[in-house]
Every structure is written in structure tokens, then in C-alpha cells.
Input
Amino acid sequence: MTLEERSLAAPELAGRRLPRALGLLEASGAVRAAVAVLVVLALVAPLLPGWLLFLLTVAFAKGLVVLGVVLLLRGDLVSFGHGLFYAAGAYTVAFALRWGVPVRDAAPLVLLGTLVATVVAALVGLFIARYRGIFFGMLSTAFTMILYSLLLKLYWLTGGTDGLAARPAGILGLQPAADTLRLTQYYFVLVLTAAVTYGAYRLAASPLGYLMRAIYDNEIRVEYMGASVRQAIYRTYVISGALGGLGGALAAVAVGHVAPDLAYWTSSGEFVFVALFGGAGSVFAPLLGAVVFEFVRNYAFKLSPYTWQLLLGSVLVLVILFAPGGLWSLLERLAQRARGGKRS
Amino acid sequence: MGVVLETVNVTRYFGAVKAADDLSVQLAEGQTVGIVGPNGSGKTTFVNLVTGYVKPARGAVRFRGRDITPLTPRQITRLGIARSFQIPQLYLRLSVLENMLLALAIREQQHWDLWRPLKLPARVEEARCLLAQFGFDTGVDQPCAALPEGGRKLLDVALSFALRPSVLLLDEPTSGVSVEDKFAVMDRLMSVVRQSAITAVFIEHDMEVVARYAERVLVFAEGRILADGGPAAVFANPAVRTHVLGEGV
Amino acid sequence: MEQLLRVAVDGLSFASYLFLVSAGLTFIYGVMRILNVAHGSLYGLGAYMAAWLVLRLWPGGAPGALALPPVWSYGVLLLAALIIGLVVGPLLERVFIQRVVDRGEVIPLVLTFALFLMLEDIMKLIWGVNPLGADLPYAMLGAVSLAGVNYPVYPFLLTGVAVVAAAALWLIINRSRFGKLVIAVIADREVSRALGIDVPRIYTFAFTLGAVLAALGGAFSAPMISVVPGVSVEVIILAFAVTTIGGLGSIGGAAIGALLVGVLRAAAVHYVPELDLFVIYALMTAILLVKPRGLFGGVEVRRI
Output
């Protein structure tokens, strides 16, 4: 009996109701491990040094953007323009603070940033949902470069290459002192990341999640079942854009600064990189990829500022050639072997 | 019994070839119709025209009196006309069960539901039931890519059937299915079809299958109807015998 | 009037090096169906090699240890381009790109992006991060007076190189044996294979040809610019815009696209400087939305 059959056959066993309701009963071993790691990361946080908290905070924020990219990747759509949403979310926070919006707390500002990015995605999606393959990629790049060119050149509005500060006055009403700021931001981002990842987990199990995979396989069949391929892509794109904006807003708050580079094509390239590096096999894969990526980049840069791209580029080449499922698929294989191959 | 689906003077070219030549066909509610004809005579084009995949140069397609010519395949499917394909169209990387679950979710227009999973217990039960009717019991969690040709054909038919259409168009449902299984498959399919009063139209090359299951046979040749009637009468028709059965040439 | 002339001249010079890079990019796409992000690196490598060679042979602008006549510096530019194109091109293609040629369009794109990252650092490791200014070939040509305004002559040479390259490319494709095989592969990969054409060899050839063009663009741009690590990053995104506008797979489209982008940018720089980048990407977006195949057709767009 598979785990699925077992769970369907034995309904309301005590202690299983909540996990069943949350849809976690069928989770694979690797997913359970990921949840456990998140819990550990929450518990040990007060013991971690500031620089590590910062690194993890930024990694989680970027991981959310990569999650957005992965949602589309499941439908064989590669967005090379997620910098658009990342920058939109980030700059919204900065603009709001600069232009004296009465709210100066990080939480509503992040929400605002996410909303703006969602609106952008809703508009761009109207056009881009009709494209596939590299033309989808090129159009997404074109849009992000438009934003970049405006952010760069309209310096009196955007601060140009200097960028803008993004320092909210507090988080959720709290005004942490300088030495606990990092910790507060960390928890803020960690909780949001966990909540959003869970949402993505439900999305992946939902009909829309499966529809994207079906679209990858056979668009004609989808239409002949009576569902609109374009609608499915559009909705996924809007959700993906929202994730990008959320990640951007959170990263802006953590870093305290925004610059036009957030919308440059290389920024989008980085998200695609991490998406493939981490893998598309699970909603946790982007987080894993993002955290490992930030660590590697941090250390590689310290080792030599002129070799971290060489290192990361080589890693990506190896992943593409030999481990196309990314880090996550390697982990799953390990988990399987650890179980002695009993059940995947 | 009213006319459920009809083409009215429908013409369609592919380059210089007339795949449909002023074709007027009326299908009655609840009928079981077999479509036969040599390759290239316009059988699949007929199905493509009627389901909106291809548009006629002239003429109209009507469903229960309503003009559906400008509609898309998706809209036509939603109206209650489903088809299966000559080459099975499946989600190869998804499992057999997942393919069926998607069909059911879309049928109920629940596919935009973000919170409830695809694998709802009630839906899974109906999916398993339907798959069992077509001979899929164990192995429904296998990816479709692992199915043999006949299995893929069957699944393709099962998916179209699952949509609970009022008109079901099957393009060569038994091709690729082994000789032993052919009649078993058609028996099962046709008994279900008869119970549900669906109008079933199937394109076939196997005349035995046609003779056994069709109430009415349409013989296509060069985009036109060569003969139209009960199987016995049609197969006795000399023109049919020459063109289609290849006799006495 | 003189504004217009200025715009035209600036536009032409900008268009010339863009054409060289874009022609190679679009040609590779036409043959292999791969959008090569590392094309920007080939440009950068050409620029670095050219600048470095010129500075070594003519340190400080004067003949060095080998006492070569300065006019040979133009030949050195060409040599640099050929070295890069003929060495790095086949290397990248055989070792990396060939392995993913049959994995759709996206995987090769991301692979070339990874190669791009690697080459960025390789350039920094070899040549450092300080700007290289090998302006001897540029300075030697001086300036000319047109309609009362002084224009440097060198950019016209760059245009000349672009024109000659275009002509050479046309000859190779339409008049050589290799060219005919390339056309067959572009038309239908599978049929070509079935006909016994050595498709992998054609791929290597096409990629190398494209690489030489990119390196040419870089090498002949070097005297005009300050060669720094950022040049590859900038040029590739512009080349994407040009090839999209002109139509992927169309060399004529790359020429028209380059001219359009060049003139548009020059005009923006003179009249509305804040929008000089914006106009390029706005045009790219507009073309993708309205005529996705680009101005000159090219390949069929995957769009539902």
C-alpha cells in the first residue's frame, strides 16, 4: 500500500487530523526534513551571529523570488525577467518611505510592495501569457530592462545609480534596538517564508499546480478537457510576480537600500540560476538553493573576488549536465538511499 | 430523437486537397455511428471541424440547433462534445490517476480552486471507479509514459468519456489495441455508452468492430459521404465495396 | 541639420559594432536554435585581447621592443579577433554546448549563461579589473571635418569592418560549400542528418563563425572604449534587443535592427538623454508584442 492509499483508508486516527488537514500527510521524507530544518533555524536563531542572520534573511527573501520562478518552470516557462517584480517590491518600500507615506512600519510596507508587484504582474501577464519558450524569456527580459532603464536614468525620482534608502521605522510595531534588529528581521522573514512556502505547497497540490505540469506535457489535451491554458498560465504568473515582489520588499528591508541593479538582466539571471541549482522538484528546493547559493557566494567572494562567478558558473554547468533536477533531487536520492530504498 | 450535432454544407481545404466537400451530416441524439473510409477521406477532419480545432472555409456546424462554428475546442468541450485522438493525447509525465483527476476537476470547473488539492478523496474515488471501467485497476499511479500503446488509447478514450459529454467522438479507438482486447474494450465502452444515452461516433478501420457496434455507418470518400445507412446495407453497397473494402477492382 | 548629422554618425558607429555582435548571435540561433548568452563574453574577450596586444606591442602609443610600425596595429586587432574566435569558439561549442543541443531552447540558454559567468571571471583573472585603453589605432586616424564639425575617423573604419564582415558572411553562406550545408541544416535538421550531412560539424563551424564576428566587434571596439569587465554584460543585452527587433535567424534583420537601435539611441542621447536606454527596450518590447517574429521574420514564434 502506498502512503496515499494508507492515509485514505484510515481516516480519523488521533494525531493525524491536523497533518491531514494541512495536506502534510503525504509529504515525502525530504520535505519533512526541510520542515524540520526550518524549525531548527527558528529555534537556534538567538545564538547565531549577526552576519549569519543577515545572510539567511536575504537568502530566504531571494528564495521566495526563486519560488516564483520555479512555479512557472513547472510549466516549461522560464522567466528571465523576475528582477522586474523584485525591483518593484523593493522600490515601492523605498519610495513609500521617501515620499513620506504615513505608515513607516516594515510589515505594511512589505505588503504594499507585494501588492504593487502583483499589479505589475497582472498587467504584464495579460501579454506574456500567450508566449512560450525563449520568446517568453525574451519578453520578460525586455520588461525588466524597461524598468531598469527608468530606475537608472530618472535619477531625480529614483536616486539613479546611488539608489535609495529603505529603512522602515519598525517591524510590526516593534522598534528593535540596533543589536536585535537583525534577529527581529530574521524572524519576520522566516515566519513569512514558512507561511508562503506552505501556501506554495498547497498550490502545487492543487488543480492549478497540476495544470501547469499538464500544460508542459500537452497543451492541446488541456484545452480539449475544457480548461484554458492561457488562464492557467496567467494566474500562475500573477502569483509568481507576487512572490517576486514580496521577496524584493523583504530584501530591501533587510539590506536597507535599493538600487537599479535589482532590475538588471543579471539579477533575473541569478534567480533562474538558483532555480535550476536548487531544483524544481519541491517548493522547498528554491529555499535550499538560495541558502546554499548565498553561502557559496559569500565565501567564494571572500576567498577571491574574481573567482566566485567562475565557481558558481562551473557549478551550474555541472548541474545542467549531470544533475538536472538540481540540489533537491540529489538530496532526495540520498534520503531514498538512507531508507534503504524502501519507499520513495 | 432530435438532431444533436450537424454539419451544414461544410467545406475545408488543405492546400489543394478537399478534406471536406460540401459536407452535410446530421447526427441524431443517442445514435451510435461508425465512420469508415480510406485514408485521407476526411474522417479525422470531420472530427476536427466539429470540435472547433479546424475552421471550415464555408458552411456551419450546429449543436442542438446552435451555431458553434466560431467556437474554440475548449468552448465546444464545455458544451458537451468530447473527443479522443488517433494518437493518444495524454499528460505523459503525470500518472494515469492524475490524468483522470484533472479531467474530473476540469469537468466540475473546480480547477481554479487553489486551496483544495487535486486529490480530494471523493474525486479520487470517482477517478478510480472510471478507470476500473476501462480496465485500469492496479498501476494507476504509474506515469502514462509507461503505458503500452493500447493502454494509452484506452486512457485517452476514458478521459474523454469522463467529461460526461452528450456527444463522444472517438478517433480509431481500437487501433493499437491487441486483437484479443479489441472486442473486450469496445464491449465495455459501448455498454457504458448505451446506458448513458450518449451519442457515440467512432472512426474505425476494423469493419468487424463497425458491424458489431454501429447502428449507422457513414462512409467517407474524398471529403464526401459515399454511403449512409445501417451496417448491412452499407457494406452491401457496390460503390462502398470497391472504394472502401477494396473488392473487385 | 548638424544635429541630425551628428545623430546619424553616432548612430552608425553604434550600429556597426552592434551588428557584428548581433549578426553572430542571430546566425548561431538560426543554425543551432540556441541563444548564446556567452556571445557577450566573446565580444569582451576580443576587446581584451586586442587592447592587450596593442598595449604590449606599442606601449604608451610608441613602438615597443619589436619596433613594429603603428599601422600594423589594425592587423593586430584583426589577429586578436581571429585568435579568440577560432580558439574559444570551437572550445565552447565542442566541450559544452554540443552536449545540450538537443535539450530544447531553454537549457542551452542557461548553460551559455553559466559559461558567461565563468568567462567574466576568467577575463578578470587574466587581465585584471583596471581599464585598458589601447587608443593607438583610434588616435592615428585623427578627425575629419563634416559640415563644419569635427568627427573622429575611427568609427567609420568600424563601419567599414562591419560592411566587409557582412559581405564576407553573405559570401560564405551563399557561395561556399559550407554555406550550402548550413542552409540545409537551418531548413531542416532532421532531414539534413538523414541526408548524411555531418550536423555536429556544421554546428561547430557556425558557432565559430559567430564567435569570430563577436570577437571582431570587440577587437575593433577596443580602441574606442575603455575595456573594463562590464562590457560583456552590457553588449549582450543590447544584442538581444537588436536580434529580437530584426528577427532571430535573420542576418539582414540584425543589420536593420542594429541601425534602428543605433540611430534611435543616438537620437535619444542628443534630444532626450534620460530615455536613451528606455527607447531601445521599449522598441524591443513593442516588436515582441506586435510582430514577435521581428521585422524580418526569421523563425516561427511559439505563441498560442
